[in-house]
Specification:
The structure is a homodimer.
Chain A: E1 33-48, E2 63-75, E3 82-85, H1 106-112, E4 117-121, H2 133-139, E5 151-152, H3 156-162, H4 183-187, E6 193-194, H5 198-214, E7 218-223, H6 229-236, E8 241-247, H7 259-265, E9 270-274, H8 289-304, E10 309-313, H9 332-348
Parallel strand pairs in A: 3-4, 3-7, 7-8, 8-9, 9-10
Antiparallel strand pairs in A: 1-2, 2-4, 5-6
Helix pairs in contact in A: 5-6
Chain lengths: ~350, ~350
């Protein structure tokens, strides 16, 4: 049943769909798209008050914090469950919209393929905003500078290597699927990212559980820093979650989950996706191979508990050169088709 | 030629279109919407490097700052110029999407009426992000706390009164058009807003001029804190800007513009819109009447210079109860129709 299953992850037949980059481009991507609706709303959140009284606007009353912005495209003809996409570190939901070089992203593509398509901004970033109290308290000298949380950002040259566009900044792997000319517009997608901690992670899980509770059937997709978010949300709120997908997570916490948690995760179809060049030496920090191996161990552990977890390592399917930003790579819609194929095989036909 | 012209603003015939809240709901709003495309991109921006080296992600290279996120809906059949919408203080582009009580916003409505529809996040907020250097420098103790910029936010109870939903928090004007039940979801649209200064304003004008340069014909709409942005962009980059609209600006700078600037603004059709209850006494600060009067003076000055400026004060048209969040009021599409009517009368037929 598994699709593009890594040799190390069992629970598989070895059937592969024929590889044809355009075979699955159903519906004509240059044709107009007919939508039942498009829009946005918020989930999660709580009320807070601030200690410092800022000039002009605030005045001491309650404000909303920890809410999560959600945008959606609902196709005229719905033929599958809702797809919820969560972005990674220093990024926003823009990750899944138009690619940096102007091609169609997964947000639109899933809608064109009949899936209600949802993209969120993580709590703390983008249109979800954050709780500014800790910053203004330092400015107002009622809290020490070191109490202020760090805003992370990824530099362009570091992103090039960490996201595996090539072995050194400005140099592409010969088979790279990432459009090198799009590195500059990708850099514009980066926003300040408050260093995560357990509380901020929990705020995201709670908001996503709220969202999953509102959608009847949903499949959650996390990426990189949020790669494991779908696992955590499924543990918190299993109802209505029909499948979870981790795209290039920073590991799968294979040793960290209890037997009970693994048992719970074994009830949900799981897909983990990794691209190419995982073992390229990196001057900028650890390479991706340990994360991949941890996810192999996780998939094996879930399947040993009776689960249905699949590790999709794209080079095993003969698809070479995919980067960490696989949803923006040149073959991004081919990869989306693999996810859709997994939905039909492992989620809808279970 | 003017539409709903205030008695104080001349250059008018007194013809009013018949008032019928549903007359102009062309196209059937519950029908599917056919889009040529939807997506997003960035404009403006510059490169910066940070002094502090944050743990984990940054590493000292260049990053993008001051870029502006733009999202768009392009209808299958385009029948008018592009409409660009800019949000106000403590808010993001979400302002123009689905209303807080779940109705259609201007972003979708303009697209359904045949206009390519663009919504931005101001530089410094939402998916546009900001330059975090000043914050991390304070955290790293290489800059003093008071050098850190203030994050503004508006408290729920203050917003209620300042946005003229009613005379006191939780109390609606009897004729209020703002859906009182939507005050809580509106509060979730608020994000931390770095106190503006001339540099941050300039970054927004530059990015918007970049956008106007890319669009062939565009009409820029500002709101509240960004109400005058379209004037500034038209002065910076007149090419391609076919009209500018200020929705409830914090005044119109009637004394501040030079004769040369007024002359330049007289070349562009201008619409200024204000809702109801401008003179309601406010315990929370100055009421809106001085801003309205300043805009009356501005409109008169532009028209005296041969311009075509219109002040649309909705009560003068017999439309009562509109709030500061007029694009979210119950009659928001009726107001949008007035804007569209102005486009046809004053922009396309000039």
């Amino acid at each position: 049943m598994a699709l593009g299953l890594s040799a190390c992850a069992t629970n598989s037949d070895q059937t592969r769909p024929p590889r044809n980059p355009t075979a699955a481009r159903f519906g004509g991507l240059n044709k107009p798209m007919s939508l039942r609706s498009t829009g946005s709303f918020f989930v999660g959140g709580r009320k807070a008050t601030f200690t410092t009284l800022e000039a002009g606007l605030y005045r001491g009353g309650p404000v909303s914090v920890d809410q999560m912005y959600v945008e959606y495209l609902i196709p005229e003809a719905v033929t599958g469950p809702s797809i919820v996409m969560i972005h990674g570190a220093t990024l926003t939901g823009k990750t899944y919209e138009t690619t940096p070089d102007g091609r169609m992203g997964w947000y639109e593509y899933f809608a064109r393929q009949g899936f209600p398509s949802y993209v969120v901004d993580q709590v703390g970033r983008g249109r979800s905003g954050f709780d500014q109290a800790g910053f203004n308290n330092v400015r107002g000298k009622i809290a020490p500078p070191e109490s202020q949380r760090n805003f992370r950002r990824i530099a362009d040259d570091l992103a090039w290597v960490r996201f595996r566009f090539g072995p050194a900044a400005g140099v592409s792997f010969p088979d790279s699927q990432f459009p090198a000319e799009a590195a500059a517009p990708l850099a514009m997608q980066s926003v300040p990212d408050i260093q995560p901690d357990p509380a901020s992670d929990r705020a995201n899980y709670t908001a996503l559980a709220d969202l999953a509770g509102r959608l009847q059937d949903s499949i959650l997709i996390g990426h990189s820093q949020s790669g494991r978010f779908p696992f955590e949300v499924a543990l918190l709120h299993p109802g209505g979650i029909k499948g979870v997908v981790a795209i290039e997570p920073g590991g799968c916490n294979s040793d960290g989950y209890s037997a009970g948690q693994i048992s719970a995760l074994a009830k949900v179809p799981i897909l983990v996706v990794f691209g190419d060049h995982l073992d390229a030496p990196q001057s900028v920090g650890p390479n991706w191979l340990p994360f991949f191996k941890d996810c192999q161990a996780f998939v094996a552990r879930v399947n040993a508990a009776g689960g249905k977890a699949t590790l999709l390592h794209t080079p095993d399917m003969g698809i070479r050169g995919n980067s960490h930003m696989i949803m923006q790579d040149r073959n991004n819609l081919e990869i989306a088709d693999l996810l859709i194929s997994w939905v039909y095989r492992s989620v809808l036909k279970r």
